[in-house]
Amino acid sequence: MKKKNELDILANAGENIVDSLASRPVLTKKEKERMYKMSRNKLDMMKENYTVSGAAEENAQDQVSGVERYTRRIMIGRVVAAAACAVLVIGVGTAALLSKKTGRSSEVINGPSEVIQPAAVTSVSIDSTATVTTHTSITTSGTAEVSGTSAENAATSADTGTSAQTQETTAASSSSSGDTAAYSSAAIERTAEFTSRYDTAHMNIGYDLTDINGDGVPELIIGCENNAANETYIFAYNGYEYVDISPEAWGFYGAAQICPEHGLIRSGGKNMYTRIFELDSAGNLNTLYDSSNGADSSVEASYSQYNWITPDYTFYAAHNGYIIDNAPQLYTDIDFDKLVEYGAFPDTNRTFCVGYDTKNLAASYPGADQYDGYEGGVAGAEYDMPSGTVTDLFPYFQGRKYRMRVTVLDRETELTHTLLVAELDFATGECKIIENYYPDAVDIHF
Amino acid sequence: MTGTEYSALYDRSPDKAYKKLFEQYCNYVYEIVYNKVCRIAAAEDIEECVSDVFADIYFSYDTGSGFQGDMKGYINTVASRKAINLYHRLISRSKHYTEQDDETLGRIGSDEDLVSDTERAEVQRIVMSKIAELGEPDSTIIIQKYYYDRTSGDIAELLSMKASAVRMRCKRAMEKLRQLLEAAGITL
């Protein structure tokens, strides 16, 4: 969330203003070093990509001369495939006819053609290079059999020759789509269970299925936020459900990024330790770097060149049909000068952090009354020496109904002051203030 | 730095040329990017964009082009385009607009409403002149605090001062700036 600054008027200014602003000290030494390092890393990557794409271009140019041959191969393959289809259809038809006439159908079925499946015949029509190759062999064996034996045996042999491969492909295909559905179903089930456990402590619970370790089975990543930090949990599929393999009981502390290319997970964030883990193909999570242990930061820098991606989360609330996009914006107006008059703070010459503690209205699980039922929420903005009224924008929403307590943390004394309690419905935009401890100084509204 | 100077330095040592160019223009590039996207971008996005600008310049600038003029114009163009791209990327990522975004979007690349743009430019000029009247280090403190949204601790580090001193000077300077601007008919 970006709060409005007093000098926002200077945004999108002309060249003279930009020059004037840039002529003053702008960046600290650390910031400069960080950005310079990033730009050099990016330059190296650009050079690397340029080299790779140059080589790829050369290869592509080589392939141009082979385009004609490739096309011809497809054409021949198609003819061969069509011939194979014709032979199969004739063979199967003749076999069926003969069987009907002679009453020998059981003999044919009991022979080596037991593996004949409708799927094998169906796959003949697939128009791809791989399939064409397969059916070339069908034609060969089929033709040989046709010339040597009866028509029904030809059909049988043709299908037998490719049955193993075709069946494997068919099985793999159906298995793959079946597995995807199973992963998806298991992921939703685990996320629902997670939400029921943590709904009051976390907001914006989202899930994503990504194969991190390249074993062909996607891992479930659940991201969420509380009033202090982002958290991420990783789950592995054990064949029928997703089980938590997060390194700590509370998951990864901080927002996580993943690098499936190298099977890595990185967690951290502002004012948090950075941790990098490797998820090996056996499902073991190995710590590669942990800044809380005073690890060498150059190790972290070496990993920073990897292609890290943020999981593409689907909000669980959205999955259940709650409004996520275009939900109403919640505003909290806080007049810090009046809070001083109320005696909440001695002065405003300090830093304040706005906090939103949430409480599930339907909370009925064991321990729901701990901390008055307010177990989590999200942090708002920090204000350094505010004067007059500031309008804090509620940073996140999940499209749900909450009882919310708005607080201000005085960074000088580390004391939290409750400003008001309100019931908020992010789906309908209804806001009902239950109790306002500083009515002239604080207001909350959509 | 001119194109000739950069090319000569690059021929001797590309690393030194990169470093020198960065040292000379990092504040300028940061300001260009910040000025365009400050309302919607996080600090990390801005730093990312600045590093993109320099990587792009290092990679794309043709040192054999024989360009002899100041590189500022070239850098300005690359930085502005990257900043506008970042702006559009962030807007599309957020998937919804706020009034503030509409306001900014209208100004980015806007060649309409010239009267409003001129008035705005005039207000900006007056605000900058009044800030300059505060003198140093107060003017830098005010800009860092109320434009770059830096904490007192960060400003203290930048100016080698104590955070408490920054807070005190900031409060007084802001009061003075408000008075100066009110006298000029501008309310923050």
**What is the typical, i.e. mean, pLDDT of chain B?**
81
Largest sheet of chain B: none
The count of helical stretches of chain A stands at: 10
- Structural class based on helices, strands and sheet pairing of chain A: alpha+beta
SSE-based structural type of chain B: mainly alpha
Helicity level of chain B = over 70%
Write the element-wise H/E pattern of chain B from the N-terminal end onward.
Answer: HHHHHHHHH
In CATH, the homologous superfamily of the largest domain in chain B goes by the name RNA polymerase sigma factor, region 2, helix turn helix motif
- Continuous helix count of chain B: 9
The name of the CATH topology of the largest domain in chain B is Rna Polymerase Sigma Factor, Chain: A
- Share of β-strand residues of chain A: 15-25%
Beginning-to-end CA distance, first to last residue of chain B: 37 Å
Give the topology, please.
The complex is a heterodimer of chains A (446) and B (188).
Chain A (H helix, E strand, L loop, with lengths): L14 H8 L6 H36 L2 H36 L2 H6 L7 H5 L6 H20 L2 H48 L4 E8 L8 E7 L4 E8 L4 E3 L7 E2 L1 E5 L4 E5 L6 E5 L5 E6 L6 H7 L10 E2 H4 L11 E5 H7 L8 E9 L16 E9 L4 E5 L7 E10 L4 E11 L4 E7 L5 E4 L1
Antiparallel strand pairs in A: 1-2, 1-10, 2-3, 3-4, 3-5, 6-7, 7-8, 8-9, 11-14, 11-18, 12-13, 12-15, 15-16, 16-17
Helix pairs in contact in A: 3-6, 3-7, 6-7
Chain B lengths: L2 H10 L1 H24 L5 H18 L11 H23 L4 H9 L6 H20 L4 H9 L5 H8 L3 H21 L5
Helix pairs in contact in B: 1-2, 2-3, 2-4, 3-4, 7-9, 8-9
